[in-house]
Amino acid sequence: MSKTLTFIHTSATLVPVFQELTNKYLKDKDLKIFNIVDDSLIKNTIERGAVTPDTSRRVVNYVGSAEAAGSDFIMVTCSSIGAAVESSIPLTSVPVLRVDQPMADLAVQTGNKIGVIATLPTTLEPTSDLVKRRALIANKQVEITSVLCEGAFDALMSGNAETHDTMVAKALVELANTVDVIVLAQASMARVVSQLKEEDKKVPILASPEIAMEYLASIL
Questions:
Q1: Within this chain, do residues 135 and 93 fall inside the same structural domain, yes or no?
Q2: Are the C-beta atoms of residues 86 and 50 closer than 8 Å to each other?
Q3: d(Cα 154, Cα 168) in Å, to the nearest integer?
Q4: pLDDT single digits (tens) 29-43
Q5: DSSP of 92-161
């Protein structure tokens, strides 16, 4: 019997990304897929500097809508609204996953010194907080180093991807000298990793989408 998997996105650009990952990791599963997209969720969060109660309420409503539409599993693909996703979990009778939780768990398993890197403060703080809490659940002491690449997100949004990539790459290389594993708080940074020289990849660098889809493949 087929199951229904719903992705809730804060950018339409993520729909093809997760479709490709679905084809790669879940092709053997009997699944129906549908997407809910609302980019005002992330725009409001960036503008206000945090997830506000009204944004949380809307995220919870989207999760409820996905459940009402027949979803057997729901994944929210934006790290910045992770706290709102967690608020929806006790209100929902089907599993709800924030995209970065499997990544945080893997980071905790991988090392004691964990670097978290982001280009947005609204993503850096929730991701660092998630790693701390997943470490507590795993009963493990970790040391977290959080790095914000200031100006990189603005460069990307203004069409200057090269500046964004240069800033992120420099921060990754520096951070790799002091930690055991690096967590990318935003999936948009993952392409920079492939541009790094092999000698600069001194530690594992984790990105959430593929790790989340591998996790889904193991439980669906």
A1: no
A2: no
A3: 12
A4: 889 999 999 999 988
A5: -SS-EEETTHHHHHHHHHH-SEEEEEES-HHHHHHHHHHHHHHHHHTT---EEEEEE-TTHHHHHHTT-H
Report the alpha-carbon distance of residue 192 to residue 165 in Å, rounded: 6
Output the six-digit token pair for 42.
Answer: 């992330």
Q: Please name which of 212, 220, 169 lies closest in space to residue 78, comparing C-alpha atoms.
A: 212
CATH no. for residue 154? Answer: 3.40.50.1860
The two three-digit tokens of residue 140, written as one number: 């493990």
Distances (CA, A) of 74 to 34, 70, 117, 148: 10, 10, 26, 29
Q: Of 38, 67, 99, which residue sits at a domain end? A: 99
Same domain, 92 and 119: no
pLDDT at 153: 82
Residue where a domain stops, chosen among 99, 116, 131: 99
CA Rg value for the chain = 17
- The mean of the pLDDT values for the chain is 91
d(CA 67, CA 5) in angstroms, rounded, equals: 10
**Domain housing 178:** 101-207
Sheet-wide strand order for 31-37: 31-37, 3-9, 73-76, 96-98
